[in-house]
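One thing: mind reviewing this one?
=====
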Amino acid sequence: MPTRSRIKNFRLADYKDRQANDSRLQERGALQKSGDAFHALADTMPQMVWSTLPDGDHDYYNARWYEYTGAPRGSTDGEAWADMFHPDDQPEAWKRWNHSLETGEPYEVEYRLRHHSGQYRWVLGRALPIIGPDQKIQRWIGTCTDIEDAKQAASHNEMLSQELSHRIKNIFAIISGLISMTARGDESFREPAETLKGRIAALGRAHEYVRPHNDKEQAVLGDVTMQRLLSEIFASYPAFTENRLRISGGDIAVGDRAATPIALVFHELATNSMKYGALAADEGQVDLVISRDQDMVLFKWSENGGAPIDTPPTGSGFGSKLVEMSVTQQLGGRLDRLWLPTGLQIDMAVQAARLSGS
């Protein structure tokens, strides 16, 4: 038979449980009782607005949420809201939400939410914590914004971009073929034809690198950076595989627009070095060092080990003019050539914003 002290302890524990439950219910109803002003504001917003307790328990949704989802009022309180997500998106949504609850960091995730039509539509979910005077989180206020139309438009544009990229690649191949056909019928055109085909091939490699045909290729290639792009351009040069044409220094992201002038500039420099400069000698070397100076990216091209330079050239060919034009006009930079006894040195500075496309 229970003793009087044990009965007293049971009653005390039961009282504490009821008190905790009452406190919980008061917390859940606090926002609803806070006044009509918040409700009026939340209900007039074009986005879905929701609120949770500090532990992430949902206790409020505005009118837009119920209109959008078609869910009965109160049916998505607590953790029932997660059932409104597409099953494939729930793990990532939960992962990010739990991380925000643990750290207090802002919450942001894209997921598919079930529309009242029964279809799943992409939405952007965001939430920020409300911090009290004691520096503790009092609650979370979040929104859901329908981004389905933007997602569809982005997907359509990506398909068009991939189709255009494929056609551009074919155009490069057609042009190279036309040049070869013309050179076969004109002996005097064969040497300039090879030069022109080399430039077109460099453009093609750069284009292929910055505009892969699909997401799978993009995942393999990774982010487009200057050092990776230059490695792609130099890959066809024996001196690069022999480690006589070296790249070092810093790195920077490269946008689509900058890839073309970069390909032209460094293809021209490497080709000229192979014909007339350091890379024409078996032991010749070229070092390309990349660095950053505030809003400019600096390139130092240093040749050594080639034939000694007694006097600098008196004129410049079309290739040199092409390099100059690409640097100054398309990349917003400057270029200086120093004809040192040990070999050519080129100091080039271009705008970082032009390279990244920002």
